[in-house]
Design goal:
- This protein has five domains: about 90 residues, Immunoglobulin-like (Sandwich), CATH 2.60.40; about 120 residues, Immunoglobulin-like (Sandwich), CATH 2.60.40; about 90 residues, Immunoglobulin-like, CATH 2.60.40; about 100 residues, Immunoglobulin-like (Sandwich); about 35 residues, no CATH class.
- Helix content is about 5%, strand content about 40%.
- The protein contains four helices and 35 strands.
- Strands 10, 11, 12, 13, 14, 15, 16 and 17 form an eight-stranded mixed sheet that branches. Strands 26-33-32-28-29 form a five-stranded mixed sheet, with no helix packed on it.
- The longest helix has 21 residues.
Length: about 525
């Protein structure tokens, strides 16, 4: 073939490839639906639940490749072994090895919590455990129940249920539990392969994964009595397929919330340790100190060594665990650093509450802003509790500000009742909150279904830093009882004090009533 013909042939072939590539549709590969199912156990050697097993190697085979999530933290053996078994992944298998001689006629439980997950999506087998017995019998009793949050009765997230063989009630502070399980998303739990004996039961939000209650901010639930596990009442047949027992396409979805034998209510343990949790200076003239607990009889003491006592004053929150310091002297609050001395309750290493003294440097640097032209003084601003142009029956008109009010000039304020086009001047009282100088209440004889207007002339209100308000008017209606609903509760057969709370959709407390007796 001549060279020109060969050249022409090659050009045709290359051009064909280019044309085909140009006509091809470019798209990302598509897959099926996302896998949401955990791995399935296909077989194991020995079988899960085997009896008379004395070997030192266990192999559990699954239908897909696996990963072990934080296995050293989550894995637990009962009864405890002197050395932790070696656990490794081999393809789709979990291989467990141990060198320890096993006890006679004993049920062993290897608990994985939710550490076993598939490789691709990380779907976990919750409460996965492998059980065998070295004797002819295996522990086969179960403990079931439900755990709920005490404040709203909703199921909590990621809550451990632990059983301790009956000992002193402080064992859960330092010892590893005898049995453990995770509650499901509805708060239901089931602990299987439990031996017949007496236990203490707890629920725990295990913040540090220690499997015991050892941090002050961990939530806990418990029964104040011992539970007795017996064949007569704790032989509970399995009523639904556990994860991994059936192929994925044959599993039935759960449609009900299961109810167990025991009910646990999770709550935040009351803090006992006293200490200073924080100190801040978010404004030049305001210092904040927060305590872990209200100071009680030990008190909180504050001073600025180089300042006169009347150049500042302190206020405490309603609970008493937050102290706010207002600095009135401009020469003092204009300093970038203020040296403060605080004395506060502190729990020492022996558990004794003492009065501790600390020197704390409070820093604030005024941010620089560009100045153009003449700067007008900032007027003093405050807000009211008027909502939708109305107040509730019996409610006072309340003003709130970001800085402490100075003494108001009542000669420049007026309160009127509005009747058509007429204004009727009515008397009122004005009081600054004794615990919050940023709050003023105005009280008058407000009638239901009547209209009012409160007028404040310029400079009638101001703060201790020399800022004055502009003239303002606050118009409002006091609604009648027919504008509100009535909620009647009949609470009976409950011992002790009760707190009834009315909450918004965001679970903010609107009203709160303390009840000491039925009614």
């Amino acid at each position: 073939m001549e060279k020109s013909s060969i050249y022409r042939y090659i050009m045709y072939v290359v051009g064909g490839f280019v044309l085909a590539a140009g006509c091809a549709k470019i798209s990302s590969p598509t897959g099926g639906p996302r896998d949401t199912e955990p791995p399935v156990v296909l077989k194991s050697v020995p079988e899960n639940g085997a009896r008379n097993f004395r070997g030192n190697r266990i192999v559990i085979s699954f239908d897909e490749y696996l990963v072990l999530d934080r296995i050293n933290e989550k894995f637990m053996v009962w009864p405890p072994m002197k050395r932790m078994p070696e656990i490794r992944i081999k393809g789709k298998d979990i291989v467990i090895r141990y060198d320890e001689e096993l006890r006679d006629s004993t049920t062993y439980t290897f608990y994985f919590q939710d550490a076993v997950r598939d490789l691709n999506e990380g779907n976990a087998i919750n409460n996965f455990q492998f059980v065998f017995s070295t004797g002819p019998f295996i522990d086969s009793l179960s403990v079931t129940g439900n755990v709920l949050k005490a404040d709203d009765l909703n199921p909590p997230e990621t809550t451990l249920i632990v059983l301790y063989i009956q000992k002193e009630d402080s064992a859960f502070l330092r010892e590893i539990p005898s049995y453990i399980a995770l509650a499901d998303q509805d708060g239901y739990f089931r602990i299987d392969n439990v031996a017949a004996r007496e236990y203490r039961i707890y629920a725990l939000k295990d913040v540090d994964n220690s499997k015991n209650f050892n941090l002050p901010d961990e939530e806990i639930a418990f029964l104040d009595s011992i539970i007795s596990v017996t064949p007569e009442k704790n032989w509970i047949p399995v009523i639904q397929d556990p994860p991994g027992s059936l192929p994925k396409d044959k599993r039935a979805a759960d449609t009900i919330v299961l109810q167990g034998d025991y009910r646990l209510y999770l709550f935040q343990h009351e803090k006992k340790l006293r200490y200073l949790t924080s100190s801040s200076r978010n404004a030049a003239y305001r210092l904040n100190y927060t305590l872990s607990l209200p100071p009680d009889t030990l008190g909180f003491h504050f001073s600025i060594p180089e300042a006169e006592p009347d150049s500042y004053f302190t206020e405490s929150s309603k609970k008493g665990d937050t102290v706010r310091v207002w600095i009135a002297d401009s020469a003092l609050y204009n300093r970038p650093l203020i040296n403060t001395v605080v004395k506060y309750p502190f729990t020492d290493s022996a558990g004794v509450d003492v009065l501790r003294e600390d020197t704390i440097m409070m820093r604030f640097i005024v941010p620089r802003t560009p100045v153009r032209g003449r700067v007008r003084p900032t007027p003093f601003r405050f807000t009211s509790n008027i909502s939708s142009a109305s107040l509730r029956p019996g409610e006072a008109l309340v003003f709130n500000s970001q800085t402490p009010f100075r003494e108001p000039d009542t000669s420049r304020t007026w309160l009127y009742e509005l009747e058509g086009s007429d204004r009727i001047k009515i008397p009122f009282s004005m009081d600054t909150d004794s615990t919050n100088s940023c709050r003023i209440s105005i009280k008058g004889k407000f009638g239901m279904n009547k209209n009012y207007i409160f007028i404040a002339d310029s400079a009638s209100f101001g703060n201790i830093y020399g800022e004055h308000c502009d003239s303002s008017a606050f118009k409002f209606t006091v609604k009648g009882e027919e504008s509100y609903g009535k909620l009647v509760l009949d609470v009976n057969n409950h011992e002790g004090s009760r707190i009834i709370q009315l909450l918004t959709n965001e679970e903010k407390i609107v009203r709160e009533v303390l009840m000491d007796e039925d009614g």
